[in-house]
Amino acid sequence: MMIKKYLTTQNLTAGILIAFAVAARFLPHPANFAPVAAVAMFSGVYLGKRASIVVPVLAMMASDIFLGLHNLIFFTWGCMILSGLIGRVVRKKKNVYTIAGGILLGSVIFFLVTNAAVWFFNHGEFYAFNFSGLILAYEYGLPFFRNTVLGDLFYTGVFFGVMELVLAWQKRKVTIRT
Fold this sequence. Notes:
The protein is mainly alpha-helical. It has one domain. It has 7 helices and no strands.
């Protein structure tokens, strides 16, 4: 009886998204071409408020435990939470433009925050602790940014596209019956 309470469509969807995001981080892929930000935004749009935060954090936590914990973990996780919260905003006026704009905003935030964190916490080792060092950190991050944008757009297109097809199919099915 207790298990049935938790076996909701939303919880199953969240579990599948988390499992997919974790698995995809272990499969061979170009650096930063991963589905976690798309999963976060999808959760913010289609799942509950709590899921927009919990789903990306659990995905990152479950995979980072095995991939390796690092000193920037709270910045990367924080950016994924922001992507989920962006999804909550997109939810209010969901269309192709707000979805694309939301995921691109998340990509830019991830790029700016994580590269600034790399510069700040690793100065002296890689970058001078001055404005030039920060700019150099952003310059060296550009190839990763390209992959982030491409991955975010790809996975967002897949997740949202499939979901909208399912919703359209359900709506059509209901219309045919009535």
